[in-house]
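Input sequence (238 aa), recorded before submission:
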Amino acid sequence: MSDAVIPLRQYSALRRLKFRLLQHLPGQRGLHYRRRMMEVNAPQTLAAFRAAQARTKGKIAVDLGANRGVFSREIAATASHVHAFEPDPWTAAILREELKDLGNVTVHEAAAGAAAGTLPIYRHRDYADNPLGLSQSSTLRQDVSDVDSSVAVAEVAVIDFPAFLKSLDAPVGILKIDIEGGELDLLPALFASDVLERVDYIFCETHETILPEAQDQFAKLRQQARRSRHPVINMDWL
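Predicted structure, token format:
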């Protein structure tokens, strides 16, 4: 569950046009170019994120898939309090250590879901070779293409996230969602709840490239996000 620094790559106008056209191709080829298009848009996404921080200064923020806390720390500079969620036990321990100097951050060693329970968590197939770098790929979904689905690392807690938002009983300025495919279950639950009335901005990474069989689901979620006026939803987080 990633908070790696977003790559700000520079592309020529011709390459940007190529990506924009080819992202609509079917299958993996279209997904490849869609990912390149998201990289083209990364500077605008970051600018929108930082503008949202300025507009929601002093409100609560929530970071789902906090990983090692890069963006939790950034959000904490303007938010009254940050709730940072990271279910992978090894990564959660690093997260707590990285953010221990911040008095306005609560680390939750749990996943955010549509209902409470416990689920197995899986890691990237090459995790043993690069645990720090690949910690961002831990997921509750066994069908993600880049994980070792044969071995679950642990059983982790899953919270009822719509209920958690209601329990805050306060406006949420920013909700960042980067949960390696978990958005396919979480976002429909949020859309079906009135709890989103309390949230100003959502920044969500979608994972089409590692869940190619779920393209129709992702397309429907993007359509719902585009129709939302409140909160403002950006589905191009990287």
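Checked by second reader. Confidence is low (pLDDT under 50) at residues 1-6.
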